[in-house]
Amino acid sequence: MTSVMTHRRLATALTAYGLLALAVLAVAPLVGTEHVSVSRILAGLFSSAPNVDFDIFFYHRIPRVMLAFAVGGTLAVAGGALQVALRNPLAEPFILGVSGGGAVGAVLAISVPGLFFRFGPLSTVQVFSLAGCLAAILVIYRVASRREGVSMATILLAGVTVNILCGAAILLIRYLASPHLLVAMDRWIMGGLDVVGYGELLTLAPLLIPGLGLLLFQAHALNLLAFGGDMAAGHGVQVAAVQRKVIIGMGLITAATVSLSGPIGFVGLIIPHGVRRLSGADHRLVLPACFCLGGAFLALCDLVARTVIAPTEMPVGIITAIVGGPVFIRILLRQKG
Amino acid sequence: MTCDLLTVEAVTYGYAGSDWRLGPCSFSVQKGEILGIIGPNGSGKTTLLKLTAGVLTPQAGVVHLKGRPTAEMTRKEMARQVAYLPQHVQTFFDYGVEDVVAMGRFPHAKGFGFLTAQDMEAVDRALVQTRTEAFRNRPLSHLSGGEMQRVLLASVIAQAPKVLLLDEPTGALDIHHQVRFFNLLSDLVASGMGVVVVTHELNLAGLFSHRLLLVSGGAITHQGPPGNLLTPDILYEVYGEEIVVSTHPSANRPVVLPATGKKKEGETAP
Predict the structure, then answer these.
(1) Interface TM-score (ipTM) > 0.85
(2) What residues form DSSP beta bridges with A70?
(3) Distance CA B186, CA B66 (A)
(4) d(CA A282, CA B103)
(5) Is residue A236 a contact partner of residue B105, using CB atoms and an 8 Å limit?
(6) Which residues of chain A have pLDDT under 50?
(7) Worst-scoring range by mean pLDDT, A31-35, B45-49, B190-194?
(8) Which of A71, A278, B135, B150 is the most exposed place for a label (fewest CB within 10 A)?
(9) Of the candidates A1, A5, A226, which has its C-beta nearest B93's C-beta?
(10) B106 touches chain A (CB under 8 A)
(11) Pairing mode, strands A145-146 and B21-30
């Protein structure tokens, strides 16, 4: 199990994770509150006659499953890389204040009635939360920047502080806001994957794809960084550059997911640990596997969220916490033993 | 002079927010020698080694590798010739022994660093040299402290460096493993490597090193062959008088023993 990473082993393992992801991607859009028939969907492909099954499948189900998959996968990759860069197994993408900044932006946008504009397919709330996320990451990056790189101890404290400040700002906005807006704020903070069409995901792809690429290219160096900066530097890793790239890449992709779906917890924390348990700690496999498993996990959680109390929906963040919490406690108990 | 692999010239360093300063320190490492760095806790041994390895950048002074300033080299270029093993190495994640040894090939790797046949050969050789091949397929978390240190040494040997910089590599080893460890270092230098080892084991340093550096209070106070350095006068000055210097029964080398009885209240190390 712990044999050294080769092309072959990487390919085999990634094929397995990829097949799992494909299976979830294929099945999840077919399940939902409204029954859709496969034959009617296929019929819709070849005719322009009005076809409800086809519309539900292509404009609601598939975009939603894809969004869930992209968000889950992205958060897991961000968490997996951040746990190594911060050398903290409890790190997750929201620990650095990104979600806090995003929440302030979103809550601010909701609190101003009549503030409706669209930026391409993005809503006011999404634009504001994206701005909040990026502002938060910029602040912590500036605070923790040193001549010789980014201080990982400082960035963690800065992130926690930003989250606390954002929490206070949210309370203030909620206190001042009209009470009927509070429900909308709560719903955003719980995280959700409501989406119609592909526009939002496509608009944020320019953040997601370079950010993910930046993280994936650090995978080999991250293995050494897991043993500490001195060990990594002694083996030829440009530690400061790798840390900087991880923070920037992680910041961009987390900002994108938070603005798309709100803060969805647990995925970025537990999936990387699960992957390491399943297939070892080599991050050349861990990071891409995180994308597959995180994506599949969130798509399945969302499937539960949108069917379990039909005809209404549950916020998916509750499902990820209910499933993820006990799994994580189990991991911790096993590590102790 | 022609044998100098690595020369350190008047390097200095100070940590932000602290008055403590190291240096200026100068020394060189020759091909085929073990250079022991000894000195009391907090004297600057580790900082000096980090400056030598290029893990810290000296505030003044230069390090030359075979005549070329290391500041001009990329980290990977440097790591292909100079390997550095820090004192404290630990990880939260469960890597396998072979993974860790293969990490030594990082500076030689291209792209995502899959091992070539040549890399695999270097890994196998390092595992054999450190007698760790028996547990090559075990996870790191299943090893004892001593086994772990040998695996980490295998990782820097797999790096195939010209100079090996080791910071207290025998801290967790039993006495027979310590001797084996230093014997291994002797084999490595016999094949042309230069080894610098920071250690608290004065006796091992005295027995196996060709030369010693004594670091005290942020400066190299003495350097020379062990016989010239491990003398009562020099050691009392640095370590206080709670020690006795004697001669090894079978080798003509000084050994340092704890003194009996006397409990002296006085200055120990600066």
Answers:
(1) yes
(2) none
(3) 21
(4) 10
(5) no
(6) 1-2, 337
(7) A31-35
(8) A278
(9) A226
(10) yes
(11) unpaired
Mean pLDDT of B39-60: 92
Residue found by looking up tokens 């040997």 in the block: B157
| Cβ contact, residue pair B95, A276, below 8 Å | no
- How far apart are the C-alpha atoms of B102 and B100, rounded to whole Å? 5
pLDDT digit string (tens) for A21-60?
999 999 999 988 888 888 888 888 888 888 888 888 888 8
Tell me the average pLDDT of chain B: 88
Contacts of B97 in chain A (CB under 8 A): 2
| Cα distance between residue A298 and residue A93, in whole Å | 15
pLDDT band, residue B161 (cuts 50/70/90): very high
Among B41, B39, B35, B44, which residue's Cα sits nearest to residue B14? B44
Neighbour-count burial for A304-320, b at 16+ CB within 10 Å, e otherwise: bbbeeeeeebbbbbbbb
Q: State how far residue B29 is from chain A, nearest Cα, in angstroms.
A: 18
Mutation for testing the B interface, residue in A154, A235, A238, A279 having most B CBs under 10 Å: A235
Find which of B48, B82, B93, B149 to mutate to test the A interface (most A CBs within 10 Å of its CB): B93
Residue, of B1 and B156, whose pLDDT is higher: B156
CB of A92 closer than 8 Å to CB of A156: no
Calpha distance A128→A106 (Å, rounded): 6
Chain B: closest CA distance from residue A140 (Å):
21
B100-138 per-position pLDDT tens digit: 999 999 999 887 888 888 999 999 999 999 889 998 899
Distance from CA of A91 to the nearest CA of B (A): 12
Chain A CB contacts of B74 under 8 Å are 238
Write a three-state SS string for A74-128: HHHHHHHHHHHHCCCCCCCHHHHCHHHHHHHHHHHHHHCCCCCCCECCECHHHHH
Best mutation target, A231, A242, A287, A290, to test chain B (most B CBs within 10 A): A231
Q: Residue B211's beta-bridge partner residues? A: B35
Where do we find the tokens 């961000």?
Answer: A78
pTM of the model: 0.90
Check if the beta carbon of residue A229 is closer than 8 Å to that of residue A151: no
Query: Which of A3, A10, A281 is nearest residue B94 as measured by Cβ atoms?
Result: A281
Which residues, in sequence order, are CB contacts of A131 under 8 Å at separation 6+?
A105
Contact, A54 vs A41, CB < 8 A?
yes
Between A4, A88, A234, which is nearest B99 by CB?
A: A4
Question: Which chain A residue lies closest to B102 (C-alpha atoms)?
Answer: A4
Give strand pairing partners of A106: none
